[in-house]
Amino acid sequence: MNRIVRAALLFAAVSVQGAAADPEYVEFDVPGASNTWVYGLNSKGDTVGDYLAGGGGSFIRTKKGVFTVITPSGAHPHLVNRKRQTSGVFSDSNGAYGFIGAADGTWTSFEAPGAQGFHPYTAPTAITDTGAIAGYFGNNGGLAAQGFIRRPLGKFVTFAVDELHNFGTFATAMTEDGLVYGYYLDADSVLHGFSRDLQGAISPIDLREAGRGQLQGTKIAAANASQTIAGTYVDAHGQQHAFLRRSGGKTITIGLPTGSMDITVTGLNGTNAVVGFYQDAQTNAHSFLRTPDGQLLSVDEPHGTHWGTFPYGINDKGVIAGSYLDGSMNSHGFIRKP
What we know:
This protein is mainly beta. It contains no helices and 29 strands. Strands 1-2-29-28-27 form a 5-stranded antiparallel sheet, with no helix packed on it. Strands 3-4-5-6 form a 4-stranded antiparallel sheet, with no helix packed on it. The protein has a 4-stranded antiparallel sheet with strand order 7-8-9-10, with no helix packed on it. β8 (86-92) and β9 (95-101) form a beta hairpin. It is globular.
């Protein structure tokens, strides 16, 4: 059942400051569900996620509010493209696998070549409108993560950054024209961002602001067609920050409150708006939106609580989708329209 809420947002001093004028929030749950989690949004406003009702399951929701249950159960989508093709992870007792799903809710699992072994995993992280999928794979038997691209017809390309001297390559974003971005962990446990071009050449991306010590460095989470990227970095003092880096190399640190922790960047659209969430110094969970003109706004859902609002995408129209937790710790889906 949908509820449409129009509200000006008020925020505590420890939260991101600012409010958009009368944004429209559409709250929803899968019919009969006690909990609904939204993990993906496409350019049209369709969403995907999981729900809890009976044994639980997953869904596609159109922008008009029509639900399709993903069958058979067991697939957990967090990606959806303009054709309503979905992707995510399917798990069983032997490991975790990727899948590609159709608009009617049916899906087929896949495994990246080389992922076989002890508890293998294949983890899709991006899908294009043509159905190409990027992500990473490995196993728990000693195979460090490597990146993959799965072409629309099912052909795989796998890659790793400095394979002999790193602890994992994680592809996390892909543009419509096939550029892949992500991060890797080197032999000294320092994080580095990277880009991979259409010819397979890989270039490191290290923010000047990032530290060079153990578990410091740059993590790219999202990218757009203009080759702007967004993500997080850890500085030389061990403090985590969110960032936006334009194609020319200019880096903007997103000014979240001092002491923010567990910062997660979840979306970047074609106008360079960035969304994500974080914990404040009191461990309260908050969401944020950095607008193209540099405003930093909270997008905490009006019916949410300090337990958190979690946006998981923003499209070029400025529509944001995600989930929020109510006072009983139950999760509900939401769409925020500017």
